[in-house]
Amino acid sequence: MAGPPSLVRVTEQWTEHHPPQVRRLRPQLAVVTWTIIAVCAAVWLGELMLPGFYEQVALSPAIGRHEPWRFLTSAFAHDRYSIMHIAFNMLALWSVGQWMEPALGRARYAALYLLSALGGGVGFVLLANPGSRGWVTGVVGASGAVFGLFGATLPMYKHIGASSRSMWGVLAINAAISFTLPNIAWQAHLGGFLTGLLVGQLMMVAVRETWRGKPNRTWPWLALVGLALILSLLAKYALTSA
């Protein structure tokens, strides 16, 4: 999975568009990003060494109905037989996270990542066909969450007046990979991307409103996004059991 180019310039533009007192509060070390990478690596090693561990964290639409925590655990697991799966995802995560986490702040960045991961799992279930093999096949991977970070960059680029043309190119390449290679859950990529795009837009609107002296509504909006994802998931399961 390819990462976005021109990261240094984007970081510089973001910094230029924020007041000095805000810039001083930005953490310089991408702690959340490195923590996610460490957790994913530990989970992958657990899959290799512990029999049955993979089956306990993977997500399938059928089992997700009864074990909803898998919508998040699956986002920290990867194909145990392919080091390239985790390597590409972690490289893409690092390439985005190294500038996005300091830009948004750790808490907002973590919320964006987790909501995108949830959105990826929800997208996978919403587009799955009950009764098909895909309904009972487990999937894993951080790709949905990473696509969410990609999606969030678009409103961030717009916020600072930067061109998003290069990011659309990155998305096109990764979308082509998703649809051409086997055993890739493109539905999760789409769900994560749309969730990240929405969350990123809401965050940028909240930033602009805060600058105008209005209350910061970031967290209420993010809570609504999470609620909407959960309700859509419950609706899907209700319809499939009817």
UniProtKB/TrEMBL annotation:
Ranges where the Peptidase S54 rhomboid domain occurs: 66-203
Membrane association type: Multi-pass membrane protein
GO terms for biological process, alphabetical: proteolysis
GO function term, MF aspect, one: serine-type endopeptidase activity
One Pfam family cited in the UniProt record for this chain: Rhomboid
Principal subcellular localization: membrane
GO cellular component, one term: membrane
Location in or out of the cell: Membrane
Transmembrane feature ranges: 29-46, 109-128, 134-154, 190-207, 219-239
Record key words, sorted: Hydrolase, Membrane, Protease, Transmembrane, Transmembrane helix
Family named by the database record: Belongs to the peptidase S54 family.
Protein name according to UniProt: Membrane associated rhomboid family serine protease
Native source organism of the sequence: Luteococcus japonicus
Lineage: Bacteria, Bacillati, Actinomycetota, Actinomycetes, Propionibacteriales
